[in-house]
Amino acid sequence: MSRRSKGASSPKFSIDQEEPVAFDDSMPDMQEEEPQKKHAQFLTAEDLEGAVGFVRGLGAAAWHYAGKHPYTVSYGFIGLILAVLILTIGLWSTIVIAVFVLVGAMVGQIRDGENGIVNFFRRLFSNGR
Fold first, then answer.
1. pLDDT tier at 58 (50, 70, 90 boundaries)?
2. What is the reported pTM?
3. Residue 61 and residue 95: Cα distance in Å, rounded?
């Protein structure tokens, strides 16, 4: 059973392309132009609007996926951060940072009146007692 509403639709992507033009020596008007002018004539306002529309549609599709799979996106992002930290500052420095973040979160939970992390570690190390 689908959870999508009847009015919702997924974004549609399309890329409009013109026919390629073959340039040869029989086209004297193209040979006389400076190289800067040749490159400038290929970028138009419609091209930029199409690119912005593509990026906007891609962003909408990404947010739609993130809304349906929040844990996949969250843990994937955490994995990306850990990979960047390990590759830039090293494994042991990353472990030290993670320990300090965990201790800070535990102190914060205790001050909030919650014991979620402390209870987790108590259950983990209690060996079923």
1. confident
2. 0.47
3. 35
